[in-house]
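Data card: per-record layout.
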Amino acid sequence: MNAANHKTLNCLVVDDEALARRGLKHRLSRIEGIHVMAEARNGREALEMIHSHSPDVVFLDIQMPGKNGFDVIRELSGGPMPAIVFVTAYDEYAIDAFEANALDYVLKPIENGRLREALNRVRENLSQRRALKQRETLLKLVSNISGEQVASMEDIRAKGIDRMRKKEVAKLAIKDGGKTTWVPQDEIEWIDAAGDYMCVHAGGETYILRKTMKELENELDPELLQRIHRSTIVNVHCVKEMRSHINGEYFLTLDSGHTIKLSRTYKDKLNYFA
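The structure for this 274-residue chain is written out next.
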């Protein structure tokens, strides 16, 4: 057995769901020779942790708000890249693509045996892994999953492949005392601020959430929910009509008939309604 097989693997766990991170860290902590050195809630934090901690292996969720797993890989393309083990909820077609391209994955919900197999493969390949070879393999993987020919990391964004979605819809946690309600983000029509609280309007109900607008933005899918005013976020798919105002602002009418304002400060968001 070579030195790579004896070496303690330093791991980074990346997932936007706290429960998923906790579960994976617990399973990893029970495996000899594995050290979970850090965790990240999104792609931005993942990149920061990779640059500052230099993990041996990253357990990377693919679909996350903001920067997703493909974004992380694309932004790592210019330098050293750790071993990547995808954490995925994709269907069997995509799983076949992972296997065909010799990259590994763990499927949610995670099984202990499958996790150990993935780590064994990481150890076997760690000593001869080269960043260029891995990038080429990742490009093949993305090509197989998307059906698009991808020649470079830049092609991932240029062809819109980074917008691929997994089957389950992202949800927003609304906590009220000891009760938590999970609201599917695609059911949210709009969100407005009321003092220190956010009013989330979804499915004819209004939920109250104590968070700042900035904190809330970081939890939402930017392809679905966009901030259009300092105190308003709207579901872009719920806008059925847009009227311009003489002062440069716009009034948006939603499917429900509710009207909200798009301020001049957020005029760059108009392309979402084109």
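Known properties of this structure: The CA atoms of residues 173 and 182 lie 5 Å apart. The two ends are 59 Å apart (CA to CA).

See the next section for split statistics.
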